[in-house]
Amino acid sequence: MAKRNTITKQLILDSLKNSKSAVSQEILQKELGEAVDRATIYRVLNSFCEDGIVHKILGDDGKYYFAICVNCSEKKHKHNHFHFRCLSCGKIECLPNEMEVKLPEGYQSVNFNGFISGYCKDCSNSSLFKQQ
Question: Domain 7-130 maps to which CATH number in 1.20.1560.10, 3.50.4.10, 1.10.10.10, 3.40.50.300?
């Protein structure tokens, strides 16, 4: 059975695609305002995860963030990359290098959550950061 593409789903998807970084449900809620309620955003984001449209990132702040998938499908997510959160501007990015984690024989990986905090290129190059 095909899933319906509603106006609400399209609003959320457009917001994710236009974002320059991974976003939390809270960020989407602020951006969309009263056009979409919190429970609907949560349900749509989880649906997008199941469909291979976005991947979920557990941040070092305990919040989940969502980023558009590249080359993923419903059955095969490939996200063995680190995520980076800037301590200054708060932007969360998927870093481009895939990581290979060698597990002991008989172990099977289901999830990879690599997370790094620090200062992004823009913030570490800012004059305010250089003065410290």
Answer: 1.10.10.10
Mean pLDDT of the chain: 84
Q: Which residues are annotated as a binding site?
A: 86, 89, 120, 123
Known binding residues for Zn(2+) are 86, 89, 120, 123
Boundaries of every domain in the chain: 7-130
For the chain, how big is the Rg over CA atoms in Å?
Answer: 17
Give CA–CA dist 65/79, Å, rounded.
14
Q: Which residue has the tokens 């963030």?
A: 65
The structure's pTM equals 0.78
Give the N- to C-terminal CA distance of the chain in Å, as an integer: 58
The predicted pLDDT at position 101 comes to 82
Q: Reduced to 3 states, what is the DSSP secondary structure of residue 67?
A: strand
Per-residue pLDDT reduced to its tens digit, 48-87 = 988 888 988 888 888 999 998 876 655 566 667 888 999 9
Residues paired with residue 58 on neighbouring β-strands, in sequence order? 64
